[in-house]
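To illustrate the input format used throughout this study, we show a single complete record. The first block contains the structure-token representation of the backbone; no residue identities are included at this stage. The design step must infer an amino acid for every position from geometry alone.
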């Protein structure tokens, strides 16, 4: 179906980013999949080409345009190229971490961090999940206890996207461990701080080129000037506030991944022969492909409306949740059907469909609302 969401500038941006993917991601992708992490330079190259911090004011190094359609283009193009693992670091940096640095920082923090975030010299991550907790975020145990002008941070996090490459980690901590939601705050931990160590780069089922890592904090002295937001105890509310955009980012990637899976499958069904004819000509294959395509178009229409609503500041938590649930379910369903239509080749990692494993939900997207 013809999409009316984009304007000429977005099409130009798409052309430019597609070339970037072909030149800077695709040739390295296999090596990154083996190594479990992308080269840090990917971020610097993306920054130099204007693909980081599109909504950050120009005087702080960004593009100065608040329009999530640019973020959507990036997500769609990395999925289309089958490099979603490598691209996830960039979409996390732009879609999920950026709002914290843009909207919860004071002037001094903006000057300190945003230019590097936009240039790609400073790679970002958000660390909520701990070995013992995921969904039940308010039970987290990492502490940040005030000591003069600093916090002393102790604890650990796991499953952290960009965990190896990250320079700035938005870290959920308890500044008052006696409380649940109301004891939570967000502080920025920086690469090189004494006592801040990386653990394993975790071996995953999919997204192999994405570094998903453990982080350990032992008496890390973090300046109080690294607190995000105006006061302690607001951390959970800050996390909840950013949920619509985070959920939409994941939902949009879901539809884009489903579309890519469909395209690979259609191509395969046209080429693969069985019983003297392309497997795509069997009626069962045609029914399956028609159903896949139908649901992708329905999901796309919903995503496009959600993106316009987000741009207008009107996307609700409920709508974003609906998008995330339905579109990630669709992603799994389409990929499963695509694997089946590939036969045994659907299980071979040389085929992108075999690598397209969807990932589970993020904690901030599933966490219960704060209770008084
Ligand atoms: C690839 C990847 C990247 C990730 N990146 C990040 C990141 O960058 N930062 C970060 O902080 N985290 C990240 N995570 C962590 C992820 O968000 C968590 O895995 C997720 O929140 C679930 O938490 P958990 O794994 O502890 O599962 P659990 O909370 O232990 O849940 C296990 C099961 O129990 C169910 N369950 C839990 N509570 C309830 C309930 N009240 N009612 C019914 N069922 C329930 C869940 O739905 C699930 O099926 C990442 C995970 C992966 C796999």
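Output of the design step:
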């Amino acid at each position: 179906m013809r999409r009316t969401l984009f304007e000429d500038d977005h099409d130009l941006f798409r052309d430019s980013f597609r070339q970037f993917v072909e030149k800077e991601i695709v040739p390295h992708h296999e090596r990154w999949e083996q190594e479990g992490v992308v080269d840090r330079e990917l971020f610097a190259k993306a920054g130099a080409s204007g693909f980081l911090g599109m909504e950050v004011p120009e005087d702080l190094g960004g593009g100065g345009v608040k329009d999530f359609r640019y973020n959507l283009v990036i997500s769609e193009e990395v999925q289309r190229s089958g490099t979603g693992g490598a691209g996830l670091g960039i979409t996390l940096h732009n879609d999920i971490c950026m709002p914290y640095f843009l909207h919860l920082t004071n002037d001094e923090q903006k000057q300190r961090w945003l230019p590097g975030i936009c240039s790609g010299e400073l790679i970002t991550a958000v660390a909520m999940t701990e070995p013992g907790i995921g969904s039940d975020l308010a039970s987290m145990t990492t502490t940040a206890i005030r000591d003069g002008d600093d916090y002393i941070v102790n604890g650990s996090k796991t499953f952290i996207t960009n965990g190896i490459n990250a320079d700035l980690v938005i870290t959920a901590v308890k500044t008052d461990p006696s409380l649940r939601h109301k004891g939570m705050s967000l502080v920025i931990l920086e690469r090189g701080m004494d006592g801040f160590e990386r653990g394993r780069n975790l071996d995953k089922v999919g997204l192999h080129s994405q570094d998903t890592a453990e982080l350990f904090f032992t008496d890390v002295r973090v300046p109080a000037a690294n607190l995000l937001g105006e006061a302690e105890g607001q951390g959970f509310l800050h996390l909840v506030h950013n949920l619509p955009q985070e959920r939409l980012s994941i939902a949009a990637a879901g539809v884009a991944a489903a579309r890519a899976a469909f395209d690979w499958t259609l191509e395969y069904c046209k080429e693969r022969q069985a019983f003297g004819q392309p497997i795509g000509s069997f009626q069962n294959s045609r029914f399956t492909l028609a159903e896949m395509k139908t649901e992708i178009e329905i999901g796309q229409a919903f995503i496009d409306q959600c993106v316009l609503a987000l741009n207008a500041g009107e996307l609700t938590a409920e709508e974003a949740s609906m998008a995330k649930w339905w579109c990630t379910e669709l992603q799994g369903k389409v990929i499963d059907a695509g694997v089946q239509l590939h036969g045994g080749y659907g299980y071979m990692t040389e085929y992108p469909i075999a690598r397209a494993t969807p990932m589970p939900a993020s904690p901030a997207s599933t966490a219960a609302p704060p209770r008084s």
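Structural context for interpreting the output: The pocket of flavin-adenine dinucleotide is lined by residues 126-129, 134-135, 159-161, 204, 207, 212, 359-363, 366 (CB under 6 Å). Residues 251 and 322 are 9 Å apart (CA to CA).
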